[in-house]
Write a structure and sequence with these properties.
8-stranded antiparallel sheet, single chain, 5 domains, 6-stranded mixed sheet
Length: about 600
């Protein structure tokens, strides 16, 4: 296949606008998948993706298509996620393409992630092919949304392709537009070979499998290859293409997307964004990689059984290969022993990682409530970054605590402007501006602290707008705030995993709410368990979990009252001793209570 007949493109859209269904139809039309093998959301191979109905991982596939002009083209498609938490997956996929199919739901119109993904594609200098999907729905507004999309792109409305991915109507026009409008890759076949690693996964038999976009030259099977970033060399087990499974081949040439099974078992040597090149004729320069992902949310991940610590470490290493946005480091907790402090791009990303660890690696985990990264300016002039509230230095050494503020964009029907403003203002949000991207649609921009955004803001937004609002956010800056640490003590022992950093005005209210919730969640012992909230060096709230009273007098059928008193006195001493040495087991629900303090 000559480089002029290769087209690399991805599908981008807001969540649930039909990317995966459109990919299904493209696979069928090109004959990549037979009708017998076909199933809905074919490229969403993970059980989690099928259950939740969302794409979590970008998926690559090679298709052969004979166009109207009679020429056969190699189309390399990457289907991307739509959820805001997986924006890093989308940004990596864009770097492996020359074009992007922008899908917009003809009934819902332009949403927040439509704009976010579009701007990312334009920043990557991709050719945009606008597509209007779900034209078969009774609620579709084809002429209206077509004009909106054309106006957004500054394009001719006739260039917007109206399709029904579900029924396959007019999908062929998308393939023709890709062939006609997306430029071929700009690689040089005779140059020293080099390829960008845009994704990877771990295989027990093939080692680390690298997903590559070949920029220049040709990679032959049997060549010794070098990872330019880490300096590690290897002879690959196999190389080939996605069709959509791994299909072994003999070579990968400039412009193509494929995989290289490295055989490497040392996971740390392989990084997404690194450059692959042959040892015998290496490239002189690396391919520009990716900026490292910046985690927004941190949480502690601990095995329920301490013996599973090494299994959890191994699982996190392997999962990080497949999810480059995941970061982690070891940490210890008084209540939970040894575990890891993990960084995530958002709450949904955290939920997916937890479920993947439990399902794919058979681990039983406790995950603490999420927190954000704070910048602490000390009186000494030093600045430290902390991602766990328990790490906050002593109040006497702190000059100021800065928290991350996000710039958010909410797009919703105009009738919901009141509830949205009320919700954001309650979460310490600051109004920026409002626009009208379409009739009866409003786009609101705000600044809001990330700590207020990560807990249940999205759920509350969907609830107040009956599911019609969409949200996009990005980091704006760090701002100083009147923030204090809220410590929780169970049986007079501080539980670092329940520690929070809150605004001083909210400390008393949140302390009371949390002690009340923990009282209901922590199981009763044979002694009274005090639950206390402390802030600023004093106890601000307390609740007692009453003791289970064992009936020690059950065996006394009458007799002298002094015998009964002796038994009760013995029980009292036992409870006192037990309170000193007894430990209270805290259930997972207690750590998650921090997520619902505004209920």
């Amino acid at each position: 296949m000559t480089i002029d007949h290769i087209r690399n493109f991805c599908i981008i859209a807001h969540i649930d606008h039909g990317k995966s269904t459109l990919a299904d139809r493209l696979l069928q039309i090109t004959g990549t998948i037979s009708d017998r093998e076909m199933q809905a959301q074919f490229l969403d191979g993970m059980d989690l993706e099928r259950e939740k109905g969302v794409t979590i991982k970008a998926s690559a596939v090679r298709m052969a298509y004979t166009a109207i002009d009679g020429k056969t083209y190699q189309l390399n498609l990457i289907d991307t996620p739509g959820h805001v938490d997986f924006g890093y997956e989308v940004s990596r996929a864009l770097r492996a393409c020359e074009g992007a199919v922008l899908v917009v739901d003809s009934s819902q119109g332009i949403e927040a992630q439509t704009l976010a993904n579009l701007y990312s594609a334009l920043d990557a200098n991709l050719e945009i092919i606008p597509v209007l999907n779900k034209i078969d729905l009774p609620a579709s507004r084809v002429p209206e949304i077509t004009n909106q999309v054309a106006e957004l792109l500054g394009d001719d409305p006739n260039e917007v392709i109206a399709v029904s991915a579900k029924h396959g109507s007019n999908v062929l026009a998308i393939l023709e537009a890709v062939v006609r409008r997306v430029p071929p890759p700009a690689g040089v076949l005779d140059a020293p070979a080099k390829a960008l690693i845009f994704d990877s996964h771990y295989d027990a038999y093939k080692g680390v499998v690298l997903y590559v976009r070949v920029v220049d030259g040709v990679f032959e099977h049997g060549d010794s290859l070098l990872l330019m970033g880490s300096g590690v060399s290897f002879i690959p087990v196999e190389l080939g293409s996605f069709a959509p499974g791994l299909v072994a081949g003999s070579r990968l040439s400039a412009g193509e997307v494929g995989y290289v099974a490295s055989g490497l078992k040392t996971i740390q040597d392989c990084r997404v964004g690194d450059t692959l090149t042959p040892v015998k004729r290496p490239a002189s320069t690396v391919v520009p990689g990716y900026a490292p992902a910046k985690p927004m949310v941190y949480a502690g991940v601990y095995p329920v059984l301490s013996d599973d610590y090494l299994l959890l470490k191994d699982a996190l290493q392997k999962l990080q290969l497949n999810d480059a946005a995941l970061v982690y480091e070891p940490e210890t907790s008084q209540a939970l022993n040894f575990g890891f402090r993990c960084g995530f791009l958002g709450l949904f990303h955290m939920e997916i990682v937890q479920e993947r660890l439990e399902r794919e690696y058979n681990l039983d985990l406790i995950v603490t409530a999420p927190s954000v990264v704070y910048e602490v300016l000390l009186r000494s002039g030093d600045t430290v970054r902390i991602n766990s509230p328990a790490e906050l230095p002593d109040e006497g050494t702190i000059d100021q605590v800065r928290e991350p503020w996000m710039r958010i964009q909410i797009i919703a029907p105009e009738s919901y402007i009141g509830p949205i403003m009320e919700l954001v203002t309650k979460r310490r949000g600051e109004y920026i501006s409002q626009e009208y991207p379409a009739p009866d649609r409003i786009s609101l921009s705000y600044y809001i602290p990330l700590s207020e955004l990560i807990v249940d803001f999205y759920d509350a937004l969907k609830s107040k707008t009956r599911g019609y609002a969409s949200l996009d956010y990005q980091l704006d800056s760090y701002r100083a705030g009147d923030l204090v640490r809220l410590n929780m003590l169970v049986n007079e022992q501080p539980i670092d995993a329940l520690t929070m950093i809150v605004h001083r005005d909210q400390a008393f209210h949140k302390g009371q709410l949390l002690t009340t919730k923990l009282k209901a969640l922590i199981p009763r012992q044979q002694f009274v368990v005090p639950i206390q909230a402390a802030s600023g060096g004093r106890i601000i709230s307390r609740a007692n979990v009453s003791a289970i009273r064992k009936d020690v007098l059950a065996k006394c059928y009458g007799g002298d009252v002094s015998r009964k008193k002796k038994l009760l006195e013995k029980q009292k001493k036992g409870k006192k001793r037990m309170k000193m040495i007894g430990s209270v087991e805290i259930p997972q629900e207690a750590f998650m209570a921090l997520l619902s303090l505004d209920d």
